[in-house]
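Reviewer 2 asked us to include a model.

Predict the structure of this chain.
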Amino acid sequence: MYQKSKTLLKEQGLAASKKLGQNFLVHEHTAQRIVDFVELSKEDTVLEIGVGLGALTRPLAEAAGQVLGLEADSGIIRLHEEQGDLPENVHLMHQDVLKADYDELVQLSQGKKLKIIANLPYSISSPFLFQLIEQHEQIDFAVIMLQKEVALRLLAQPGTKEYGVPTVMLGTVATVKMLMHVGPEEFHPRPKVDSAVIRLSFDPLPERAAALGNFDRKLLKTIVSSTFGQRRKTLLNGLASAGLLSKDVLRECINEAELLPSVRAEQLTLETFVRLAQIIKTRLA
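Predicted model (structure tokens):
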């Protein structure tokens, strides 16, 4: 399949785009394993992001009733249209997922929450993850191929160097599960890093996330970003850099949250960050 993919691209005058960060999944057994993890039925519409050469699209189409395939590369769209090599229940859309209208995608999914499968260019993994967080109420689940290092960050625990902004923010809306590791030899061209497939479950809202109560998500992101952006600084100094309140008032907020001003961001749990955001919110009112 690896050599076949290279030949097909060459025949069509195409090549993997460095600008788009393309690494096409080419091994069919890996694609089938991913589809098996998803457990689709013919009642499902699935949204595939990054159709590529169709290695994942075909088994998805066999398992689901309909596949909505978003692809940013016009050359790849043209290749499939000319080859006619995708099943009839695949609806190709030439679209950048970062500019997608999620309301429209839900309508195309028969009004149901989105079931997302994505083999992402590594270059857009961070903005895409934050897009999912923003759109979480419209998503059932997302099964995503990521750089292994990024996947491990999403699973990280407090007190580790991998723990950071996406770990905390994703924890407010979803649970994260590691499904499988994927080596460079599974792709064309071969990336220089290992990959991993994770599942983000948004619906129903996880118990831990539901237990957080009401909080200002935008304010929480500001707090988490400012404190992790200054990892070597204390919590107090990191918060001060956001310019939300005076240092004296922030010190009072930290004390009310039963924290020491000298603690650092990576030591705070998701619940502690939310509690701190709720306290700061009252001082901003």
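The longest helix spans residues 270-284. The two ends are 60 Å apart (CA to CA). We have added this to the supplementary material.
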